[in-house]
Amino acid sequence: MDAVHGYGVSTVEYLQTHYRGAQSWFLFISFAADLRNTFFVFFPVWFHLCESVGIKLVWTAVIGDWLNLVFKWILFGERPYWWVHETSFYSNSSVPHIEQFPVTCETGPGSPSGHAMGSAGVYYVMVTSLLAILIKKQGHSGKNWCVRGALWAVFWGVQVCVCLSRVFLAAHFPHQVIAGVITGMIVAEAFSRVKWIYSASLKRYLHTTLFLLTFALGFYLLLRALGVDLLWTLEKAKRWCVRAEWVHMDTTPFASLLRNLGTLFGLGLGLHSPLYTESKPGRSAPFRLGCIIASLLLLHLFDSFKPPTHTEALFYLLSFCKSAAVPLATVGIIPYCLSGALSAHSKKLL
Question: Is residue 5 annotated as part of the catalytic site, yes or no?
Answer without folding.
Answer: no
